[in-house]
Design goal:
- This protein has about 300 residues and is an alpha+beta fold.
- Helices cover about 50% and strands about 25% of the residues.
- It is built from 6 helices and 14 strands.
- Strands 6, 7, 8, 9 and 12 form a 5-stranded mixed β-sheet that branches. A 3-stranded antiparallel β-sheet has the order 3-2-5, with helices on one face. The chain has a two-stranded antiparallel ribbon with strand order 1-4.
- The model has no long low-confidence stretch (mean pLDDT about 80).
Length: about 300
């Protein structure tokens, strides 16, 4: 038998050692596991063999060898980065870009670019450029291409919304062409996917701003005058058509009135002829006359009978 109190102390010691061993095992196990969160992807660097090409880990748990394999995680979500002088911007990566336009004007302009690392080539991005790809590639390319494109446009083009859209599209095309690529399976794949580019309001000097606004007002005034002239021209044309229609209507009414008068005379004389040719032989009950100058013309009475009646 153990001396009094020896057995309980031994059990406590063993439990303590077992607990420490368990914690150590859990610590080792935890060190062997690495979690990639949603919206991220991970590449693995091996101390002996370097970056493991072709291995891009998606969100979830991966196994690694502690001290030998080092995971490096990238956010692969699309994010908008800004070139701006605004200190409150949370996504600023550089200052606003100063450009020189085709008409010799210089001013600063904010630029926003939407991009993300290409998940399919993330290992190559890390191997050839690294985690600082924004500062080493994106910033210089965007600044360079915005300046190149701006030299092909006048300062007023940055004021017009439609022209700014054309500038944005041309700059976007050039930036995509300049982004680094890799050839895989006969396909050329970009390391960084640029999804959009947006120009902010240009920081025009006050004199240039006033000049552009005056030109805009003059242009709007000229366009308004042109529209009014077109409206007046259409109104004049409408009035001429209406006058011609009225004139034609008057002519048709005159022709219709003349034809109706002739028809009325014809019907009137037919009725007179019927009364003159009365089969009973009696005198017509009415004597219809018409005065023509100094002569009296009987319309429904035989002239000889009229003369006899007048002689009586």
């Amino acid at each position: 038998m153990y001396p009094t109190g020896e057995a309980p102390q031994s059990r406590v010691g063993w439990l303590t050692v077992g607990g420490i061993a368990l914690l150590a095992a859990l610590g080792v196990l935890r060190a062997c596991l690495y979690v990639t969160l949603p919206g991220q992807a991970t590449v693995v660097f091996n101390t002996f063999f370097g970056l493991q090409k072709g291995r891009v880990e998606l969100p979830g748990v991966i196994f690694r060898i502690p001290g030998i394999e080092t995971p490096i995680t990238y956010s692969v979500l699309t994010r908008v980065w800004e070139f701006t002088n605004n200190p409150a911007s949370a996504n600023a990566i550089s200052n606003a870009i100063t450009v020189n336009t085709a008409d010799g004007q210089a001013f600063a302009i904010d630029v926003a670019i939407a991009l993300r690392p290409n998940l399919a080539t993330l290992d190559e991005l890390h191997a050839s450029i690294g985690e600082n790809y924004l500062s080493t590639v994106v910033v210089p390319v965007v600044r360079s291409k915005i300046r190149d494109i701006s030299a092909s446009f006048d300062s007023e083009d940055f004021y017009r919304k439609s022209q700014r859209a054309a500038i944005e599209q041309r700059a976007l095309d050039l930036i995509r062409q300049e982004m680094p690529t890799v050839n895989r399976d006969g396909q050329t794949l970009p390391l960084v996917q640029v999804e959009g580019l947006f120009l902010g309001n240009p920081d025009f000097p006050q004199a240039l701003r006033d000049s552009i606004e005056r030109k805009q007002v003059a242009s709007i005034t000229a366009q308004t005058a042109a529209v009014r002239a077109q409206i007046q021209e259409k109104e004049t044309e409408r009035l001429l058509i209406l006058a011609a229609a009225n004139q034609r209507a008057i002519e048709l009414k005159g022709q219709a009135a003349a034809q109706n008068a002739q028809l009325a005379d014809l019907l009137f004389y037919e009725k007179l002829q019927e009364r003159i040719q009365n089969p009973t032989g009696s005198l017509p009950p009415l004597r219809i006359i018409r005065v023509e100058g100094d002569a009296t013309v009987f319309l429904n009475v035989d002239p000889r009978q009229a003369a006899l009646q007048q002689a009586r």
